[in-house]
Amino acid sequence: MTTPASLAHADTNDLEAFFMPFTSQRQFKKAPRLLTGAEGVHYITRDGRKILDGSAGLWCVNAGHGRKEIAEAIKAQADHMDYAPSFQMGHPGAFELASRIGNLAPEGLDTVFFANSGSEAVDTALKIALAYHRARGEAQRTRFVGRERGYHGIGFGGMSVGGIKANRKMFGLMLPGVDHLPHTSDLNRNAFSRGLPDHGAELADALERICELHDPSTIAGVIVEPVAGSTGVLPPPKGYLKRLRDICDTHGILLIFDEVITGFGRVGAAFASEAFGVTPDMMTIAKGLTNGAAPSSAVVMGRAIYDSFMTGPEWAIELAHGYTYSAHPLAVAAGLATLDIYRDEQLFQRSADLAPKFENLLHSMADAPNVIDVRNIGLMGAVELSSRPGEPGKRGFDVFLECFAQGLYLRATGDVLAMSPPLIVKESEMEEMISILKKAITKVG
Ligand SMILES: Cc1ncc(COP(=O)(O)O)c(C=O)c1O
Fold first, then answer.
1. Domains of the chain by range and CATH?
2. What's the pLDDT band for 23 if we cut at 50, 70, 90?
């Protein structure tokens, strides 16, 4: 693998200018972890070490790194037409990508609005929900319901419906009119579950209580991740999502699945909604859409939502929303090439086929020191460690550092170590990942 000269020789003496996202700046800048190359399921560090990518970047490089087809598609598009606006103009690839996403999505979800990040997709979905109800004469539906331990990005909308204290506490009042369902983590009843936990469907009934409190006709939408990813891989209890669906149907509330992580094969089907047999009214997607090779995201919705806006004069703009880079040609080229790879290599099926092996490997960690839970679904999994007294998150961070030292990159979220390898991972590579993680957990203690 060749490393571009600009990266190999980047001056890294001064790391101060970059205020890094979600990073322990001071710790990082004392001992930087710099990546300069990537191929297959490996990163290469600046000092030439090969690191297994246990997290597909940030849950996005589902087809593995260094996919020539995607790089070539981006280059061909850049050579041909670098940029085209999507406001009152269009380019053919955008329509093709939208159709292909619609074909992959569960039946009935066939209309696509493009944004650039998961956060933007979430805020777009919330805005569409509000505008949809208003267009139908239900402008009083302005409330949203999210869930504790939900992550929906860092825009004001996503942060508000999200349920992570650290992501909220510094940032003021947020969107008004947002309630949260209880999270579904229940180690007393469900620790070491394989796949969907048996207990907790009744937690969805909290939505009925919220409806009771506010009057359901004031609620625009409910948004949840089908599997909470960023707070440590929480697969939904059996029957839980169906109950949410039923309650939303009863009260005319839109159900939004945030499939930014779970989309594109992560749980062994194109989308979690397909894997779990529950179809939302809208879903947000990002990450695997372009294999992480260019920023792109989207909201996928049913035709009825789109149609609700198609009133008024034809020359008028129906939805005053969009981004300069919505359906950016380079991202669209990356998306089309990525969907080709998923199809040609049957990667969603591969994810389903590898899942039992991944499950067994993860659960072999159950007797490692301080492990209090192991969870998995598809090719997502997590090992939860007990917290050191007074230092929540420190043990997880130490394991993350030790893994990196031993050749594995994964995500630590608090004291949970989360893994989501690229779907092209080989069984032997999964074994290697788990073996490093086990050694690291044991060493850190
Ligand atoms: C479920 C979910 N929604 C939204 C986001 C935000 O995506 P982005 O970081 O692209 O804004 C993420 C990111 O991890 C996510 O996991």
1. 5-63+346-444 (3.90.1150.10), 71-344 (3.40.640.10)
2. very high
